[in-house]
Design brief:
- It comes from Eiseniibacteriota bacterium.
- The structure is a single chain.
- The chain has one helix and nine strands.
- By secondary structure, the chain is mainly beta.
- It has a single domain, classed as Porin, CATH 2.40.160.
């Protein structure tokens, strides 16, 4: 398991490193997130960080989420990058991206009490809007491609 996480982390770092934009990368803020998950059927909540742009319009935004329901609890740590199609912050703007995440699933005791972990891959689509106070609001759909929940709908924001 450790080897999978290490290999995934190194792959992500090597992929991102050459594209880092000198003027746009660095901690910008954090925000809460929450929503619903399909397969497993859960409610999830968590937080994310904004590390700015790693390339033109491409933002690195890792997150952590905890889900409950469907006789299990889940914990996910995701490294995600998204491309923002429109630069206007005062209007709803579409974005798309992808991510790699460590997904840990713990079944309830009556279902065996087993815990498993997988390195997953997902695709992301969403809408984001800047607010008058400088914060942001987003609506996001996340599709599990490999060893991740089938679908997540998330509402979140950024606090600066």
């Amino acid at each position: 398991m450790f080897k999978k996480v290490l290999a995934g982390s190194l792959l992500a770092a090597l992929t991102v490193a050459p594209a880092v934009s000198a003027d746009g990368f660095g901690y910008r803020g954090w925000g809460p997130r929450g929503g619903v998950t399909a397969e497993p059927d859960q409610v999830h909540f968590g937080a994310h960080l904004d590390f700015g742009h790693i390339a033109d319009r491409v933002r690195f935004q890792p997150n952590a989420e905890f889900g409950i329901g469907d006789d299990a609890s889940t914990f996910a740590i995701n490294g995600e990058a998204t491309y923002r199609f429109v630069q206007r912050w005062d209007a709803w703007s579409p974005y798309a991206g992808a991510g790699v995440g460590l997904n840990i699933v713990s079944l309830d005791e009556e279902n065996g009490g087993d815990t498993s972990s997988d390195l997953g891959v997902n695709a992301i689509v969403g809408l984001e809007r800047g607010l008058s106070n400088g914060s942001r609001l987003f609506l996001e759909g996340k599709f599990g491609l490999v060893d991740s929940p089938d679908f997540k709908f998330t509402v979140g924001g950024m606090i600066y």
